[in-house]
Amino acid sequence: MRFNELEPVEQAATASKTRTEMGRIGAAALFVVGVMIFTGARFADLDQAYLLIAAAVIGAYMAMNIGANDVANNVGPAVGSFAMTMTGAIVIAAVFEAAGAIIAGGNVVTTVKNGIIDPADIGDSNTFVWVMMGALLGAAIWLNIATWLGAPVSTTHSIVGGVMGGGIASSGWAAVNWPAMGAIVSSWVISPVAGGLIAAGLLYTLKRTVFWKDDPVTAAVRVVPIMLFVMAWTFTTYIALKGVNNITDISTPVAMLVGLVLGAAVYVLMRPRIAARAPHLPPGREGVNQLFTAPLIFAAALLSFAHGANDVANAVGPLAGIVEVLVDGDAGASSASIPLWVLVIGALGISVGLAIFGPKLIRTVGTEITELDRSRAFCIALAAGLTVIVASQLGMPISSTHVALGGVFGVGFLREFLDQRMGSIIENVLEKHEGDKHFDEVARVLNDFKRAPVEEKQRILDQLAEMGEHAVITAAQQRKLNKILKRQLVKRSHLLKIVSAWLITVPASALLSVLFFFALRGMMLP
Protein backbone atom coordinates (compact mmCIF):
# COMPACT_ATOMS: atom_id res chain seq x y z
CA MET A 1 0.00 0.00 0.00
CA ARG A 2 1.34 3.43 -0.95
CA PHE A 3 1.67 6.32 1.46
CA ASN A 4 -1.02 8.32 -0.31
CA GLU A 5 -3.38 5.37 0.14
CA LEU A 6 -2.68 5.27 3.88
CA GLU A 7 -3.73 8.88 4.43
CA PRO A 8 -7.51 8.30 4.13
CA VAL A 9 -7.26 5.38 6.57
CA GLU A 10 -5.41 7.52 9.12
CA GLN A 11 -7.91 10.34 8.68
CA ALA A 12 -10.82 7.95 9.23
CA ALA A 13 -9.23 6.57 12.41
CA THR A 14 -8.61 10.08 13.74
CA ALA A 15 -12.17 11.13 12.90
CA SER A 16 -13.58 8.05 14.65
CA LYS A 17 -11.53 8.77 17.77
CA THR A 18 -12.65 12.41 17.73
CA ARG A 19 -16.31 11.42 17.37
CA THR A 20 -15.98 9.00 20.29
CA GLU A 21 -14.42 11.66 22.49
CA MET A 22 -17.02 14.22 21.52
CA GLY A 23 -19.73 11.66 22.27
CA ARG A 24 -18.35 11.18 25.78
CA ILE A 25 -18.16 14.90 26.42
CA GLY A 26 -21.68 15.30 25.02
CA ALA A 27 -23.07 12.60 27.32
CA ALA A 28 -21.41 14.21 30.34
CA ALA A 29 -22.80 17.60 29.29
CA LEU A 30 -26.31 16.16 29.01
CA PHE A 31 -26.09 14.84 32.58
CA VAL A 32 -24.89 18.21 33.87
CA VAL A 33 -27.68 20.03 31.98
CA GLY A 34 -30.20 17.59 33.45
CA VAL A 35 -28.95 18.38 36.97
CA MET A 36 -29.17 22.09 36.20
CA ILE A 37 -32.76 21.85 34.96
CA PHE A 38 -33.87 19.67 37.87
CA THR A 39 -32.33 21.91 40.52
CA GLY A 40 -33.64 25.07 38.87
CA ALA A 41 -37.19 23.69 38.72
CA ARG A 42 -37.07 22.41 42.30
CA PHE A 43 -35.81 25.68 43.82
CA ALA A 44 -37.25 28.24 41.41
CA ASP A 45 -38.62 30.33 44.28
CA LEU A 46 -35.34 30.46 46.25
CA ASP A 47 -33.71 33.89 46.47
CA GLN A 48 -30.24 32.58 45.64
CA ALA A 49 -31.34 29.73 43.38
CA TYR A 50 -28.51 30.48 40.95
CA LEU A 51 -25.95 29.64 43.64
CA LEU A 52 -27.66 26.35 44.47
CA ILE A 53 -27.88 25.45 40.78
CA ALA A 54 -24.17 26.19 40.36
CA ALA A 55 -23.32 24.13 43.44
CA ALA A 56 -25.42 21.18 42.19
CA VAL A 57 -23.67 21.31 38.80
CA ILE A 58 -20.24 21.37 40.45
CA GLY A 59 -21.26 18.49 42.74
CA ALA A 60 -22.38 16.49 39.69
CA TYR A 61 -19.08 17.25 37.97
CA MET A 62 -17.18 16.13 41.06
CA ALA A 63 -19.21 12.90 41.22
CA MET A 64 -18.41 12.13 37.57
CA ASN A 65 -14.72 12.60 38.25
CA ILE A 66 -14.93 10.24 41.24
CA GLY A 67 -16.50 7.63 38.97
CA ALA A 68 -13.88 8.18 36.28
CA ASN A 69 -10.88 7.99 38.62
CA ASP A 70 -11.55 6.15 41.86
CA VAL A 71 -13.81 3.24 40.92
CA ALA A 72 -11.05 1.68 38.79
CA ASN A 73 -9.40 0.43 41.96
CA ASN A 74 -12.42 -1.80 42.71
CA VAL A 75 -12.76 -3.49 39.31
CA GLY A 76 -9.37 -2.95 37.62
CA PRO A 77 -7.70 -6.14 38.94
CA ALA A 78 -10.73 -8.26 37.97
CA VAL A 79 -10.66 -6.82 34.43
CA GLY A 80 -6.88 -7.15 34.14
CA SER A 81 -7.06 -10.82 35.12
CA PHE A 82 -9.87 -11.45 32.59
CA ALA A 83 -12.31 -12.51 35.30
CA MET A 84 -14.65 -9.84 33.92
CA THR A 85 -14.98 -7.99 30.64
CA MET A 86 -14.69 -4.21 30.61
CA THR A 87 -18.40 -3.85 29.85
CA GLY A 88 -19.41 -6.29 32.59
CA ALA A 89 -17.17 -4.54 35.11
CA ILE A 90 -18.64 -1.12 34.28
CA VAL A 91 -22.22 -2.39 34.58
CA ILE A 92 -21.62 -4.17 37.90
CA ALA A 93 -19.62 -1.28 39.36
CA ALA A 94 -22.16 1.33 38.22
CA VAL A 95 -25.09 -0.57 39.73
CA PHE A 96 -23.39 -1.29 43.05
CA GLU A 97 -21.80 2.16 43.33
CA ALA A 98 -25.23 3.76 42.86
CA ALA A 99 -26.85 1.29 45.26
CA GLY A 100 -24.22 1.94 47.92
CA ALA A 101 -24.58 5.70 47.54
CA ILE A 102 -28.39 5.76 47.72
CA ILE A 103 -29.01 2.94 50.21
CA ALA A 104 -26.10 3.46 52.59
CA GLY A 105 -24.88 6.93 51.70
CA GLY A 106 -25.54 8.13 55.20
CA ASN A 107 -28.22 10.23 56.80
CA VAL A 108 -25.73 12.73 58.20
CA VAL A 109 -22.40 13.89 56.81
CA THR A 110 -19.95 16.40 58.21
CA THR A 111 -20.07 19.49 56.05
CA VAL A 112 -16.36 20.12 56.51
CA LYS A 113 -14.69 16.82 55.66
CA ASN A 114 -12.62 15.23 58.42
CA GLY A 115 -12.69 18.36 60.58
CA ILE A 116 -10.17 20.13 58.34
CA ILE A 117 -11.58 23.58 59.14
CA ASP A 118 -13.90 24.91 61.81
CA PRO A 119 -17.09 26.42 60.32
CA ALA A 120 -17.17 28.87 63.22
CA ASP A 121 -14.04 30.51 61.79
CA ILE A 122 -15.89 31.40 58.57
CA GLY A 123 -17.51 34.80 58.87
CA ASP A 124 -20.89 34.49 57.17
CA SER A 125 -23.09 32.17 55.16
CA ASN A 126 -22.06 33.60 51.77
CA THR A 127 -18.40 33.03 52.55
CA PHE A 128 -19.19 29.48 53.66
CA VAL A 129 -20.95 28.80 50.34
CA TRP A 130 -17.99 30.18 48.38
CA VAL A 131 -15.57 28.02 50.39
CA MET A 132 -17.57 24.87 49.69
CA MET A 133 -18.05 25.67 46.00
CA GLY A 134 -14.36 26.46 45.60
CA ALA A 135 -13.44 23.23 47.39
CA LEU A 136 -15.70 21.14 45.16
CA LEU A 137 -14.51 22.78 41.97
CA GLY A 138 -10.83 22.63 42.92
CA ALA A 139 -11.05 18.95 43.85
CA ALA A 140 -13.03 18.10 40.72
CA ILE A 141 -10.59 19.88 38.40
CA TRP A 142 -7.64 18.09 40.01
CA LEU A 143 -9.37 14.71 39.66
CA ASN A 144 -10.04 15.51 36.01
CA ILE A 145 -6.36 16.28 35.45
CA ALA A 146 -5.26 13.11 37.28
CA THR A 147 -7.64 10.99 35.20
CA TRP A 148 -6.33 12.56 32.00
CA LEU A 149 -2.78 11.74 33.13
CA GLY A 150 -3.80 8.16 33.95
CA ALA A 151 -3.02 8.46 37.68
CA PRO A 152 -5.51 7.00 40.21
CA VAL A 153 -5.62 9.32 43.25
CA SER A 154 -7.61 9.56 46.47
CA THR A 155 -10.87 11.46 46.05
CA THR A 156 -11.02 11.95 49.83
CA HIS A 157 -7.60 13.62 49.80
CA SER A 158 -8.75 15.75 46.88
CA ILE A 159 -11.79 17.15 48.69
CA VAL A 160 -9.80 17.53 51.91
CA GLY A 161 -7.24 19.61 50.02
CA GLY A 162 -10.03 21.66 48.48
CA VAL A 163 -11.67 22.41 51.83
CA MET A 164 -8.30 23.23 53.37
CA GLY A 165 -7.48 25.67 50.57
CA GLY A 166 -10.87 27.37 50.79
CA GLY A 167 -10.56 27.65 54.59
CA ILE A 168 -7.11 29.24 54.34
CA ALA A 169 -8.29 31.67 51.66
CA SER A 170 -11.33 32.75 53.67
CA SER A 171 -10.01 32.76 57.24
CA GLY A 172 -6.24 32.31 57.24
CA TRP A 173 -3.88 29.49 58.24
CA ALA A 174 -5.28 29.24 61.76
CA ALA A 175 -8.60 27.92 60.41
CA VAL A 176 -6.97 24.60 59.43
CA ASN A 177 -6.90 21.62 61.79
CA TRP A 178 -3.22 20.81 61.27
CA PRO A 179 -3.14 17.61 63.39
CA ALA A 180 -5.84 16.19 61.09
CA MET A 181 -3.74 17.17 58.09
CA GLY A 182 -0.74 15.44 59.66
CA ALA A 183 -2.77 12.23 59.93
CA ILE A 184 -3.70 12.52 56.25
CA VAL A 185 -0.05 12.97 55.26
CA SER A 186 0.88 9.87 57.25
CA SER A 187 -1.73 7.88 55.29
CA TRP A 188 0.28 8.50 52.11
CA VAL A 189 2.80 6.00 53.51
CA ILE A 190 0.62 3.82 55.75
CA SER A 191 -2.06 2.98 53.16
CA PRO A 192 0.01 1.69 50.22
CA VAL A 193 2.61 -0.03 52.41
CA ALA A 194 -0.06 -1.86 54.43
CA GLY A 195 -2.00 -2.86 51.33
CA GLY A 196 1.15 -3.98 49.53
CA LEU A 197 2.46 -6.07 52.43
CA ILE A 198 -0.87 -7.83 53.01
CA ALA A 199 -1.41 -8.54 49.29
CA ALA A 200 2.15 -9.84 48.91
CA GLY A 201 1.75 -11.99 52.03
CA LEU A 202 -1.47 -13.52 50.72
CA LEU A 203 0.06 -14.23 47.33
CA TYR A 204 3.20 -15.78 48.86
CA THR A 205 1.01 -18.01 51.03
CA LEU A 206 -0.91 -19.08 47.93
CA LYS A 207 2.32 -19.86 46.10
CA ARG A 208 3.72 -21.92 48.97
CA THR A 209 0.54 -23.88 49.62
CA VAL A 210 -0.76 -24.29 46.05
CA PHE A 211 1.35 -23.22 43.08
CA TRP A 212 4.65 -24.70 44.21
CA LYS A 213 3.09 -28.10 44.87
CA ASP A 214 3.45 -31.00 42.43
CA ASP A 215 -0.32 -31.00 41.84
CA PRO A 216 -1.58 -27.40 42.27
CA VAL A 217 -5.23 -28.25 41.56
CA THR A 218 -5.34 -30.90 44.28
CA ALA A 219 -3.67 -28.51 46.71
CA ALA A 220 -6.22 -25.85 45.75
CA VAL A 221 -9.09 -28.10 46.82
CA ARG A 222 -7.77 -27.80 50.40
CA VAL A 223 -6.56 -24.17 50.37
CA VAL A 224 -9.04 -22.22 48.22
CA PRO A 225 -12.09 -22.92 50.45
CA ILE A 226 -10.10 -21.51 53.38
CA MET A 227 -9.31 -18.36 51.37
CA LEU A 228 -12.98 -18.03 50.41
CA PHE A 229 -13.86 -18.31 54.10
CA VAL A 230 -11.45 -15.45 54.85
CA MET A 231 -12.88 -13.46 51.95
CA ALA A 232 -16.50 -13.89 53.10
CA TRP A 233 -15.57 -13.01 56.67
CA THR A 234 -13.59 -9.97 55.57
CA PHE A 235 -16.10 -8.53 53.13
CA THR A 236 -19.10 -9.09 55.37
CA THR A 237 -17.30 -7.20 58.13
CA TYR A 238 -16.15 -4.55 55.63
CA ILE A 239 -19.66 -3.95 54.27
CA ALA A 240 -21.12 -3.88 57.78
CA LEU A 241 -18.62 -1.28 58.99
CA LYS A 242 -18.32 0.81 55.82
CA GLY A 243 -21.84 0.52 54.40
CA VAL A 244 -24.53 -0.83 56.75
CA ASN A 245 -23.11 1.26 59.59
CA ASN A 246 -24.28 4.33 57.68
CA ILE A 247 -27.87 3.09 58.01
CA THR A 248 -27.84 1.69 61.54
CA ASP A 249 -25.22 1.49 64.26
CA ILE A 250 -23.33 -1.79 64.30
CA SER A 251 -20.34 -2.48 66.53
CA THR A 252 -17.13 -4.03 65.29
CA PRO A 253 -17.51 -7.25 67.35
CA VAL A 254 -21.03 -7.78 66.00
CA ALA A 255 -19.88 -7.12 62.42
CA MET A 256 -17.01 -9.57 62.80
CA LEU A 257 -19.27 -12.21 64.36
CA VAL A 258 -21.75 -11.95 61.48
CA GLY A 259 -18.84 -12.16 59.07
CA LEU A 260 -17.50 -15.24 60.84
CA VAL A 261 -20.86 -17.02 60.57
CA LEU A 262 -21.24 -16.16 56.88
CA GLY A 263 -17.62 -17.15 56.22
CA ALA A 264 -18.19 -20.55 57.83
CA ALA A 265 -21.30 -21.04 55.69
CA VAL A 266 -19.33 -20.19 52.54
CA TYR A 267 -16.63 -22.69 53.51
CA VAL A 268 -19.15 -25.50 54.09
CA LEU A 269 -20.93 -24.80 50.80
CA MET A 270 -17.88 -24.27 48.58
CA ARG A 271 -15.53 -27.03 49.71
CA PRO A 272 -17.54 -29.93 48.18
CA ARG A 273 -18.28 -27.86 45.07
CA ILE A 274 -14.59 -27.16 44.49
CA ALA A 275 -13.71 -30.81 45.12
CA ALA A 276 -16.31 -31.91 42.55
CA ARG A 277 -15.06 -29.40 39.99
CA ALA A 278 -11.33 -30.11 40.43
CA PRO A 279 -11.14 -33.24 38.18
CA HIS A 280 -12.54 -31.22 35.27
CA LEU A 281 -10.07 -28.32 35.59
CA PRO A 282 -6.92 -27.93 33.46
CA PRO A 283 -3.76 -28.89 35.35
CA GLY A 284 -1.46 -26.31 36.93
CA ARG A 285 -1.94 -22.59 37.38
CA GLU A 286 -4.65 -22.23 34.73
CA GLY A 287 -6.96 -24.62 36.54
CA VAL A 288 -6.41 -22.96 39.93
CA ASN A 289 -7.10 -19.53 38.48
CA GLN A 290 -10.51 -20.64 37.26
CA LEU A 291 -11.56 -21.16 40.87
CA PHE A 292 -11.15 -17.43 41.58
CA THR A 293 -13.42 -16.09 38.81
CA ALA A 294 -16.69 -15.92 40.76
CA PRO A 295 -15.02 -14.67 44.00
CA LEU A 296 -13.44 -11.81 42.05
CA ILE A 297 -16.79 -10.75 40.62
CA PHE A 298 -18.35 -10.75 44.10
CA ALA A 299 -15.36 -8.81 45.48
CA ALA A 300 -15.65 -6.15 42.77
CA ALA A 301 -19.38 -5.74 43.47
CA LEU A 302 -18.95 -5.51 47.24
CA LEU A 303 -16.02 -3.09 47.01
CA SER A 304 -18.08 -0.91 44.66
CA PHE A 305 -21.04 -0.91 47.08
CA ALA A 306 -18.83 0.12 50.01
CA HIS A 307 -17.08 2.74 47.87
CA GLY A 308 -20.38 4.26 46.77
CA ALA A 309 -21.63 4.34 50.36
CA ASN A 310 -18.58 6.23 51.57
CA ASP A 311 -17.11 8.28 48.73
CA VAL A 312 -20.39 9.75 47.51
CA ALA A 313 -19.96 12.12 50.47
CA ASN A 314 -16.84 13.51 48.76
CA ALA A 315 -19.09 14.84 46.01
CA VAL A 316 -22.28 15.72 47.88
CA GLY A 317 -21.02 16.44 51.41
CA PRO A 318 -20.06 20.05 50.60
CA LEU A 319 -23.17 20.31 48.40
CA ALA A 320 -25.31 19.22 51.38
CA GLY A 321 -23.70 21.97 53.44
CA ILE A 322 -24.55 24.53 50.77
CA VAL A 323 -28.16 23.29 50.62
CA GLU A 324 -28.36 23.63 54.41
CA VAL A 325 -27.15 27.22 54.26
CA LEU A 326 -29.15 28.43 51.27
CA VAL A 327 -32.42 26.59 51.97
CA ASP A 328 -32.54 26.57 55.78
CA GLY A 329 -30.25 29.52 56.49
CA ASP A 330 -28.04 27.52 58.90
CA ALA A 331 -24.62 28.98 58.15
CA GLY A 332 -21.83 26.48 58.66
CA ALA A 333 -23.67 23.85 60.66
CA SER A 334 -21.43 21.16 62.02
CA SER A 335 -23.39 18.52 60.16
CA ALA A 336 -25.93 18.51 57.37
CA SER A 337 -28.66 16.06 56.50
CA ILE A 338 -28.27 14.86 52.93
CA PRO A 339 -31.56 15.06 51.01
CA LEU A 340 -32.34 12.10 48.78
CA TRP A 341 -32.15 14.18 45.61
CA VAL A 342 -28.58 15.21 46.51
CA LEU A 343 -27.60 11.55 47.06
CA VAL A 344 -29.14 10.63 43.71
CA ILE A 345 -27.09 13.29 41.95
CA GLY A 346 -23.94 11.87 43.53
CA ALA A 347 -24.88 8.27 42.74
CA LEU A 348 -25.78 8.97 39.12
CA GLY A 349 -22.72 11.17 38.67
CA ILE A 350 -20.38 8.40 39.84
CA SER A 351 -22.06 5.88 37.54
CA VAL A 352 -22.04 8.24 34.53
CA GLY A 353 -18.39 9.16 35.07
CA LEU A 354 -17.43 5.49 35.38
CA ALA A 355 -19.28 4.48 32.23
CA ILE A 356 -17.97 7.34 30.10
CA PHE A 357 -14.44 7.96 31.31
CA GLY A 358 -13.63 5.03 33.64
CA PRO A 359 -12.08 2.51 31.17
CA LYS A 360 -8.80 4.44 30.94
CA LEU A 361 -8.03 4.12 34.65
CA ILE A 362 -9.41 0.56 34.79
CA ARG A 363 -6.81 -0.42 32.18
CA THR A 364 -4.08 1.37 34.11
CA VAL A 365 -4.85 -0.46 37.36
CA GLY A 366 -5.64 -3.81 35.77
CA THR A 367 -3.04 -4.21 33.03
CA GLU A 368 -0.41 -1.47 32.87
CA ILE A 369 1.27 -1.61 36.31
CA THR A 370 2.03 -5.32 36.48
CA GLU A 371 0.68 -8.52 34.95
CA LEU A 372 -2.29 -9.87 36.90
CA ASP A 373 -3.95 -13.24 36.81
CA ARG A 374 -7.01 -14.17 38.86
CA SER A 375 -5.15 -15.47 41.89
CA ARG A 376 -3.11 -12.26 42.12
CA ALA A 377 -6.21 -10.11 41.60
CA PHE A 378 -8.00 -12.06 44.35
CA CYS A 379 -5.13 -11.37 46.77
CA ILE A 380 -5.32 -7.65 45.96
CA ALA A 381 -9.09 -7.48 46.54
CA LEU A 382 -8.86 -9.44 49.79
CA ALA A 383 -5.95 -7.28 50.98
CA ALA A 384 -8.02 -4.12 50.40
CA GLY A 385 -10.78 -5.32 52.70
CA LEU A 386 -8.41 -6.67 55.36
CA THR A 387 -6.29 -3.52 55.42
CA VAL A 388 -9.23 -1.15 55.84
CA ILE A 389 -10.68 -3.24 58.69
CA VAL A 390 -7.36 -3.60 60.55
CA ALA A 391 -6.46 0.07 60.10
CA SER A 392 -9.86 1.31 61.23
CA GLN A 393 -9.62 -0.74 64.43
CA LEU A 394 -6.12 0.57 65.13
CA GLY A 395 -7.23 4.14 64.53
CA MET A 396 -4.83 4.52 61.60
CA PRO A 397 -5.69 6.98 58.82
CA ILE A 398 -6.08 5.09 55.56
CA SER A 399 -7.02 5.68 51.93
CA SER A 400 -8.83 2.85 50.16
CA THR A 401 -7.41 4.08 46.84
CA HIS A 402 -3.85 3.91 48.12
CA VAL A 403 -4.52 0.51 49.72
CA ALA A 404 -5.76 -1.03 46.48
CA LEU A 405 -2.92 0.34 44.40
CA GLY A 406 -0.43 -0.62 47.11
CA GLY A 407 -1.77 -4.16 46.73
CA VAL A 408 -1.13 -4.10 42.98
CA PHE A 409 2.43 -2.86 43.49
CA GLY A 410 2.99 -5.33 46.35
CA VAL A 411 2.04 -8.28 44.14
CA GLY A 412 4.31 -7.02 41.36
CA PHE A 413 7.30 -6.46 43.65
CA LEU A 414 6.87 -9.91 45.20
CA ARG A 415 7.08 -11.41 41.72
CA GLU A 416 10.27 -9.44 41.08
CA PHE A 417 11.80 -10.56 44.36
CA LEU A 418 11.04 -14.23 43.79
CA ASP A 419 12.20 -14.04 40.19
CA GLN A 420 15.54 -12.46 41.05
CA ARG A 421 16.14 -14.76 44.01
CA MET A 422 15.53 -17.75 41.75
CA GLY A 423 17.99 -16.32 39.25
CA SER A 424 20.81 -16.00 41.78
CA ILE A 425 20.30 -19.61 42.87
CA ILE A 426 20.47 -20.83 39.28
CA GLU A 427 23.63 -18.80 38.64
CA ASN A 428 25.31 -20.41 41.64
CA VAL A 429 24.41 -23.89 40.38
CA LEU A 430 25.73 -23.15 36.92
CA GLU A 431 28.98 -21.60 38.16
CA LYS A 432 29.85 -24.81 39.98
CA HIS A 433 29.78 -26.74 36.71
CA GLU A 434 31.61 -24.27 34.48
CA GLY A 435 33.96 -25.95 31.97
CA ASP A 436 31.79 -28.85 30.87
CA LYS A 437 30.84 -29.25 27.21
CA HIS A 438 27.11 -29.95 27.24
CA PHE A 439 26.25 -26.67 25.62
CA ASP A 440 23.22 -27.82 23.61
CA GLU A 441 21.45 -29.31 26.57
CA VAL A 442 22.17 -26.24 28.73
CA ALA A 443 21.00 -23.93 25.94
CA ARG A 444 17.74 -25.89 25.71
CA VAL A 445 17.22 -25.55 29.46
CA LEU A 446 17.98 -21.82 29.33
CA ASN A 447 15.47 -21.30 26.53
CA ASP A 448 12.85 -23.14 28.57
CA PHE A 449 13.78 -20.90 31.48
CA LYS A 450 13.29 -17.74 29.42
CA ARG A 451 9.79 -18.76 28.36
CA ALA A 452 8.66 -20.07 31.74
CA PRO A 453 6.45 -18.13 34.13
CA VAL A 454 7.87 -17.38 37.56
CA GLU A 455 6.36 -20.45 39.23
CA GLU A 456 7.80 -22.81 36.59
CA LYS A 457 11.35 -21.63 37.31
CA GLN A 458 11.39 -23.74 40.47
CA ARG A 459 10.91 -26.88 38.38
CA ILE A 460 13.64 -25.80 35.95
CA LEU A 461 15.95 -25.22 38.90
CA ASP A 462 15.32 -28.78 40.05
CA GLN A 463 16.16 -30.03 36.56
CA LEU A 464 19.41 -28.06 36.50
CA ALA A 465 20.40 -29.46 39.87
CA GLU A 466 19.82 -32.99 38.58
CA MET A 467 22.08 -32.36 35.55
CA GLY A 468 25.12 -32.25 37.79
CA GLU A 469 28.28 -31.81 35.75
CA HIS A 470 26.29 -31.30 32.57
CA ALA A 471 24.98 -27.92 33.80
CA VAL A 472 27.48 -25.40 32.40
CA ILE A 473 27.25 -21.85 31.06
CA THR A 474 29.67 -19.46 29.41
CA ALA A 475 30.36 -15.92 30.60
CA ALA A 476 28.30 -14.52 27.71
CA GLN A 477 25.40 -16.74 28.66
CA GLN A 478 25.72 -15.64 32.29
CA ARG A 479 25.25 -12.05 31.21
CA LYS A 480 22.26 -13.05 29.10
CA LEU A 481 20.70 -14.92 32.01
CA ASN A 482 21.31 -11.93 34.27
CA LYS A 483 19.53 -9.66 31.85
CA ILE A 484 16.53 -11.98 31.66
CA LEU A 485 16.28 -12.43 35.40
CA LYS A 486 16.55 -8.74 36.23
CA ARG A 487 13.65 -7.65 34.05
CA GLN A 488 11.21 -5.39 35.86
CA LEU A 489 7.82 -6.93 36.56
CA VAL A 490 6.49 -3.58 37.88
CA LYS A 491 6.55 -0.64 35.47
CA ARG A 492 8.61 2.03 37.21
CA SER A 493 7.17 4.82 35.07
CA HIS A 494 3.68 4.10 36.41
CA LEU A 495 4.98 3.84 39.96
CA LEU A 496 6.67 7.25 39.72
CA LYS A 497 3.65 8.89 38.07
CA ILE A 498 1.12 7.55 40.58
CA VAL A 499 3.22 8.28 43.69
CA SER A 500 3.92 11.81 42.41
CA ALA A 501 0.19 12.37 41.89
CA TRP A 502 -0.52 11.13 45.42
CA LEU A 503 1.99 13.56 46.92
CA ILE A 504 0.62 16.63 45.16
CA THR A 505 -3.11 15.81 45.44
CA VAL A 506 -3.76 17.80 48.63
CA PRO A 507 -1.65 20.87 47.70
CA ALA A 508 -2.89 20.88 44.10
CA SER A 509 -6.55 20.70 45.17
CA ALA A 510 -5.91 23.36 47.81
CA LEU A 511 -4.29 25.75 45.33
CA LEU A 512 -7.11 25.33 42.82
CA SER A 513 -9.66 25.83 45.58
CA VAL A 514 -7.97 29.10 46.63
CA LEU A 515 -8.10 30.37 43.05
CA PHE A 516 -11.77 29.47 42.64
CA PHE A 517 -12.71 30.91 46.04
CA PHE A 518 -11.24 34.32 45.18
CA ALA A 519 -12.81 34.19 41.71
CA LEU A 520 -16.25 33.42 43.20
CA ARG A 521 -15.88 36.08 45.87
CA GLY A 522 -14.82 38.61 43.26
CA MET A 523 -17.87 37.88 41.15
CA MET A 524 -20.33 37.88 44.07
CA LEU A 525 -19.18 40.92 46.04
CA PRO A 526 -20.96 44.17 45.11
Describe the protein's architecture and organization.
With 526 residues, the chain is mainly alpha-helical. It has one domain. It is built from 18 helices and two strands. It has helices at 3-42, 49-69, 72-80, 86-104, 125-149, 155-171, 178-211, 216-242, 252-277, 285-290, 293-328, 340-368, 374-394, 400-432, 439-451, 457-467, 475-485, 492-524, and strands spanning 108-110, 335-337. It has a two-stranded antiparallel ribbon with strand order 1-2. The radius of gyration is 26 Å and the shape is elongated. The protein starts with a helix and ends with a helix.
Q: What share of the residues does DSSP label as strand, in percent?
A: under 5%
Q: Write down the domain tally.
A: 1
Which descriptor suits the 3D outline?
A: elongated
**Structural class of the secondary elements?**
mainly alpha
Strand order of the largest sheet: 1-2
